[in-house]
Amino acid sequence: MLKEGWLFFKSFIKQNKLCLIGSILLLVTVPPLTIFALIDSAYHVESHVLQQFFYLGLFPLMLLGLALFCVGIFISRQGFFSTETIKELVQKADKAKVLKETALVTSVILTVVLICMGAIVYSAYHYTESVNFCGKLCHKVMTPEFTAYKHSPHAHVKCVECHIGPGASWFVKSKLNGMKEVVEYLTNTYPKPLPTPLHNLRPARETCEECHRPEHFIGYKFVIKEKRETDENNSKVYTVLLMKTGTGGMRAQKAHGIHWHVSPDVKIYYKYTDEKRENIVEVIKVENGQKTVFKGGEEVGEGHIREMDCLDCHNRPTHIFHSAEEALDLQFVSGAMPEDLPFIKKVALEAITKEYSSREEAEIKIAEYINNYYQNNYPDIFKNDKEKIDKAIKAAREAYLLNVFPEMNISWNTYTNFLGHDGCFRCHNEELESADGEVIPQDCSLCHNLLAEEEENPEILETILGE
Ligand code: HEC
Ligand code: HEC
Ligand code: HEC
Ligand code: HEC
Ligand code: HEC
């Protein structure tokens, strides 16, 4: 059955060099890729080595095979629709039969190949949207963002869920941007550190709102910060704040508090003059149709205007780099840092804030610095309690490695977090004034109630904990 058609198809491919090479490539890539794609869709392969081999190695080869095959069929002089091929078909004894069978064989083969490719393209597309692809492929470049992300509240949200919005225009934007980045990566021309804010892949407000409803955060949030002093006992102190998070307004609730800025009745625009948006020179508030402009005395020339959204405060919701102090405090909180080693907060802080040319060098020098300190100042501990010192060294290194990446020129405080005074006081300050001489308020109880500041045993903690 279909023998004639199959024979003709074979002989055609044999004669046509492009089709031959293309078919061989397809033959060696499509079956393994199909099997891998099916396994990947069903069981979600986690291994990045396998993903790279199949989707970045075999997949382009398959596309090349397909391209050669198509060129062979449609364009080349020995192609399927060339006069020679048609002449050959016509010369065959049983023309109609050969013609019909050839068409049938070709379409069956093509259908099978296309179905396989559908499965493969679908899986490969999913791979380009995966955390592995975004976070690990250009390993050196993305390590800082990936590291911070893995330890953040959003560690289970995929990169693309924040960075790529819905719809076709985002799709095009993201793939174009991706291509530009791959070129920069291959030619080693990418900026170090990666610039922020982002211009193309900046998460949109709608993106955050797929999971968080701004009108929903009614009320207050206790923020309790456990810190360590740099004294001999590494004394534990607490800062307690009641954040007036408020709401963007829901049903009868009027918008108030910190999330008042994102109420549907309020629009805030600001004019900034620097790349990082730290220097804000004018703020325009439009509330229920009424417009108020706050600006400084001096005329500023050119600037850029933006509408304020979630990211003007939550600019580091997942790539959270801590200050050196905070990073060490977190090591104490988790129990990784021994709290009864005299002066360890102070010594570790000195060790991790020195400048090192690489992470490897830092690991060695941090250990040296801490060891030296205890050898010289507490020889007893150094002799009898080496284990504790080793534990402290491990925690200090961890604090450093989670936050500092000399290869990408990322040091302590390279990226500013706007969710604090650094962000709020860009607008809430004395300099920007309305025509009536009003300023954007700064009283200490506007955004939070400061219930305790670096106190050892704050009464408020006893009250709220009931202990
Ligand atoms: C919860 C949302 C969210 C997720 C998930 C997320 N990002 Fe981001 N990312 C942001 C925001 C917000 C910014 C800062 C945007 C701005 O200021 O314009 C950012 C900035 C960046 C930057 C620019 C450099 C910088 O540090 O500001 C890179 C690179 C980046 N993200 C990569 C990633 C990668 C890779 C992943 C996945 C491993 C990821 N992001 C996951 C929200 C997210
Ligand atoms: C796919 C869903 C998803 C998206 C998109 C998302 N988040 Fe979240 N976010 C979460 C979840 C889940 C948590 C809670 C994590 C937990 O408590 O462990 C969270 C927590 C938070 C928190 C509280 C963090 C804390 O310290 O407790 C903030 C603030 C936040 N998200 C802001 C944002 C912003 C800003 C964006 C947009 C750039 C965003 N989120 C996008 C799911 C999401
Ligand atoms: C004016 C700055 C500002 C804007 C704009 C803003 N937030 Fe917040 N948001 C805050 C602050 C401050 C907190 C309290 C954070 C803290 O101290 O832990 C907060 C808290 C949150 C929390 C945590 C709530 C909880 O109970 O833990 C989420 C989630 C959140 N914001 C999401 C959003 C989203 C989504 C948007 C945009 C629609 C947004 N925020 C706009 C400043 C802002
Ligand atoms: C882009 C400028 C801008 C930034 C940044 C900004 N604010 Fe505001 N904020 C305003 C303006 C404008 C008002 C309204 C002042 C007025 O009504 O006179 C306001 C009002 C407020 C109010 C009072 C809301 C009410 O109930 O009426 C709170 C609370 C507040 N901001 C908190 C914050 C916090 C917290 C941050 C930082 C995380 C912050 N703001 C950052 C511009 C800003
Ligand atoms: C416009 C809003 C706003 C105003 C006004 C404001 N703060 Fe804050 N403050 C914040 C935010 C946001 C944070 C960060 C909360 C967090 O880290 O979760 C903060 C944090 C703090 C902290 C804790 C810092 C830390 O990490 O230990 C202290 C202390 C503090 N504020 C004191 C003050 C004092 C004193 C004033 C009056 C001069 C003041 N604040 C005015 C928004 C404000």
TrEMBL record:
The chain crosses the membrane at residues 53-75, 102-125. InterPro entries: Cytochrome_c-type_ET, Multihaem_cyt_sf, NapC/NirT_cyt_c_N, NapC/NirT_cytc_sf. Its main location: membrane. GO terms for biological process: anaerobic respiration. It is found in: Cell membrane. Keywords: Cell membrane, Electron transport, Heme, Iron, Membrane, Metal-binding, Transmembrane, Transmembrane helix, Transport. Belongs to the NapC/NirT/NrfH family. This is Cytochrome c family protein, multiheme. It comes from Thermosulfurimonas dismutans.
